[in-house]
Design goal:
By secondary structure, the chain is an alpha/beta fold. The chain folds into two domains: 81 residues, Winged helix-like DNA-binding domain superfamily/Winged helix DNA-binding domain (Arc Repressor Mutant, subunit A, Orthogonal Bundle), CATH 1.10.10.10; 220 residues, D-Maltodextrin-Binding Protein, domain 2 (3-Layer(aba) Sandwich). Helices cover 40% and strands 22% of the residues. The strands form four sheets. It has a five-stranded mixed β-sheet, with helices on both faces.
């Protein structure tokens, strides 16, 4: 077993395909496949299950990859401590729902660990993909919310994938609207106030169940619905169409602009926003730093939005 083989299997797990892993590693796909099969034979386990749909990490593979990442992390520490230049790129990935504080913390992470050679990923993506990314170790951390409506379903999926959910904070329901929207000046709004305005939400692809919605009160009937994929589009439509979206109320003016405001929503319910990690994987130094950065931005901003 070599460090190179460990880098091979972790890269395959992160990318989900042999072809993409080979491209990233600058090796041929047959050479990569051979190296992984030799490692599986040496260890006496199957790390990846080969199916008609591609490859998936096996149950034994999940445990093995947890140890492999720890070995690579320790090797990186040795290189940084004893080499004049650290060998290899620093790598880190986060999958998250659309939260500005997740971006703020990611910026801090790159400033702290980036240096001259790194490969970091921040995926603002769909709820199911966040769980899948962490389960298959494409991302070390996931960020999403639970509430009374989706908790049972999502907790079941989280547990089935051997993941853990840790609460960062719980927030009261708010809406985001343009500063030009008549509702922007209100101390709070009701669902009745929102009836005539377009409702914007993030679409969830093939997993477009209410349970995977990024917005609470997803089952409420609305006459005008618009679904989008990214945060910039949603905010542009909030301004251009005088629309609204339901959110945690945590907003960053530097990232989202001064023309978007949060207004409390008078509805019973809350958002328990937290992080997903893999149960069998010890967090790296970068993941620990990132979580602390998240807590810093949460404590600095929008304290009035929090329940705890």
């Amino acid at each position: 077993m070599t460090l190179q083989q460990l880098r091979y299997v972790t890269t395959v797990a992160e990318t989900g395909t042999m072809s993409e892993a080979a491209r990233r590693l600058f090796v041929s796909q047959p050479g990569l496949t051979k190296a992984i099969r030799e490692l599986e034979q040496e260890m006496g386990i199957i790390i990846f299950d080969r199916t008609n749909k591609g490859i998936e990490v096996s149950k034994d593979g999940v445990i093995f990859l947890g140890y492999a990442r720890q070995v690579l992390e320790q090797a990186s520490l040795l290189e940084e401590r004893y080499k004049l230049q650290a060998g290899g790129k620093k790598e880190f990935s986060v999958s998250t729902q659309h939260y500005s504080f997740a971006v703020n913390a990611f910026v801090d992470l790159i400033k702290e660990f980036g240096g001259d050679n790194y490969d970091f990923s921040l995926r603002e993506t769909q709820t199911y993909e966040i769980i899948d990314d962490v389960a298959k170790m494409r991302s070390e951390i996931g960020i999403l919310y639970l509430n009374d409506f989706n908790r049972t379903v999502l907790k079941k999926i989280i547990k089935a994938n051997d993941l853990e959910f840790e609460t960062l904070f719980t927030a009261r329901p708010h809406i985001f609207v343009s500063t030009l929207n008549p509702l922007a000046g209100k101390e709070s709004v009701t669902m009745e106030d929102l009836k005539t305005y377009p409702y914007l939400s993030f679409e969830q692809g093939e997993h477009n169940s209410f349970y995977f919605s990024e917005e609470i009160f997803s089952t409420t009937e609305r006459a005008k619905n618009i679904r989008v994929r990214d945060r910039a589009t949603l905010f542009n439509l909030l301004i251009g169409l005088n629309g609204y979206t339901v959110c945690s109320g945590v907003i960053d003016e530097e990232l989202n602009g001064a023309n978007i405001v949060a207004v409390p929503l008078k509805e019973e319910g809350d958002m328990e926003i937290g992080i997903l990690t893999h149960h069998r994987i010890r967090g790296s130094r970068m993941s620990e730093f990132y979580i602390q950065a998240l807590r810093k931005y949460i404590s600095w901003k929008n304290a009035e939005a929090f329940l705890i």
